[in-house]
Structure prediction request, 320 residues.
Amino acid sequence: MIEEIVAQGMDVERFIQGKVAMIREAVGNGTAINALSGGVDSSVVTMLGHRALGGRLKTVFVQNGLMREGEAERVVELFRDLGVEVRVVDARKEFFDALKGLSDPEEKREAITREFYRNVLARVVRTSGAKHLLQGTILTDVEETVAGIKRQHNIIEQLGIDPKEAFGYHILEPLVQLRKDGVRKVGMALGLQEELFRRIPFPGPALAARVIGEVTPERIGAVRKATSVVERMLKDSGAFQYMAILHQDRVTGMRDGKRDFGMQIEVRCWDSVDARKASPTRLPFETLEELARRILDEVPGVVSVTYNIAAKPPSTIEAV
Ligand code: XMP
Prediction:
């Protein structure tokens, strides 16, 4: 049983001191690795790890080809400003090869997890000589995976897998007692830029969690463009999270007076405190119309844009 630390009333400084001590003790004189995706959780872990280990923590950004527009460059720049050097590891081909032909959600998740931990990170760890991987698993990830709702990409030990045996390194999870609201408090106290700790959540499987059916470079390209429109338009909405999803079914539309059997994009925008429950944000209809206009305009091949109005549960925040 993991003991939850509730954000409200939490002693953030004491939490940070405790986790810094825990990381130092586990790593000893050695080095550790962490994979930064630019999401809130991995950003906070990066800062926590650097406070504990300084240059003995090596931070990598795994470019899996599933990231948002300009993400790698932006993350490298933001962390450089914080004095943290981030190395970008190009693994695009490996991830797309691993995802080829898969359309079942759990099989896709499994393929991403395998590629990430067993191949890419294992290689990085091996060549660096590190024995520990630091990662930003939070309580909600553990609960949903253990309950069998979704296999969150970063859940390893809680599924009975020994990472040392399976991949050759230990995993440290300093945020596992927290939920998103607690993680944000820690991020703020660690001096992360607001752009990072206020960021909307982004899933471990990245844009692959937003492509229903097979994940190909072309389909990721379409959802990446739509995501960029949605994020630009809703950044001041105050919502907990917003996203674009690419559907598998095609629908009939028309373009230039001709039938066009095109793609469908679903927009989701959520109000939530900690992602356990969520409800669709009541966006003004004018905003929805503008979203549709811009997506149809900027993403070639899309003929339909819908807005999700179902709450979690029974929906989940991500579609895959
Ligand atoms: P769901 O979709 O389970 O998402 O309601 C809950 C929150 O966790 C974020 N998140 C993930 N979701 N797989 C997911 O399905 C992952 O690996 C993952 N990592 C993070 C999600 O974006 C939402 O905020």
User: Anything to note?
Assistant: Strands lie at 32-35, 57-63, 86-90, 132-134, 170-172, 241-246, 251-255, 258-271, 279-280, 302-307. The chain has a mean pLDDT of 94. Residues 140, 144, 150, 152-153, 201, 203-205, 209, 241, 275, 312, 316-318 surround xanthosine-5'-monophosphate (CB under 6 Å). The chain has eleven helices and ten strands.
